[in-house]
Design a protein that fits this description.
An eight-stranded mixed sheet has the order 1-2-4-3-5-6-7-8, with helices on both faces. It is an alpha/beta fold and about 325 residues long. The protein contains 13 helices and eight strands. Helix 1 crosses helix 2, helix 4 crosses helix 5 and helix 7 packs across helix 8. Helix 11 links the parallel strand 7 and strand 8. It has a single domain, classed as Rossmann fold (3-Layer(aba) Sandwich). It comes from Eurypyga helias (Sunbittern). This is acylglycerol lipase.
Length: about 325
Amino acid sequence: MDLDVLNMFIIAGGTLAIPILAFVASFLLWPSALIRIYYWYWRRALGMQVRYANYDDYQFCYSYRGRPGYRPSILMLHGFSAHKDMWLSIVKFLPKNLHLVCVDLPGHEGTTRSALDDYSISGQAKRIHQFVECIKLNRRPFHLVGTSMGGNVAGVYAAQYPEDICSLTLICPAGLPSTTESKFIKQLRELQESERIDKIPLIPSTPEEMADMLKLCSYVRFRVPQQILQGLVDVRIPHNDFYRKLFLEIVDKKSRHSLHENMTKIKAPTQVIWGKQDQVLDVSGASVLESAIPDCHVYILENCGHSVVVERPRKTANLILEFLVLLHSMDNNKKQA
């Protein structure tokens, strides 16, 4: 082989080896950095831009795509201890011309965390209203989506600020009493009885606890490498004290059944999506909402747990789009009548 050609292959091989070695080193030594890079990559790939909005001395962090148009904007509220990027799996299947906004809830990720803040569900709903006013999202009524704790906040928001929203999607929302005790609720009761409430299953501090949490939240069994589990834990550990404080706040009497206490005030057309095999919040909550909200459309997903957004992103995105199309069609029929 010609020496120049051989040198070219050696140089090319060395050039390729550098990013490969960097990736392997990140995976083995800094898995949490790899997770952050993963979210950064998917935000860019999906066209989501990160911005900040300020209300007095309070800062909200959010991502968005598109501009307000003839179709309603969509505001998405994540679950407990998550962040705005959890919606990326849904965003992937939504049209690029839709105006989407995903915000970090109070104390999460890039949004202000203050020991003086009110982290009750009603307190969080007030903060989200401040955010909405900051970015003038309520110039026209928008569609509000919330999952788990974010679903509780979304439901209370819809009840307290009905003029802001045109429709609502609740995905496995918290804040409801249940006739059937879920596996998670049973675990909590056992922890309370043994006075080990610091071991909350949704606040893992080891890779093993993270794996248990994933099993609890998902019906689908994801095979997650040990290094990724470690990375997921590393990202969360600095925030675990806050998550414990927040958890105790939202299960307190003031917030535990906030959605239930406000659901009869919800006047907007409402879509409820729930995983049939949800082990965190029992699926029976769907019928509670259906009986209380006048215009309520319930969808139960087979072979799906609490993490609907992760387990069934395409189906969830399609259900939201179909719901919006249905409402648009009904609105047109009313105008023509």
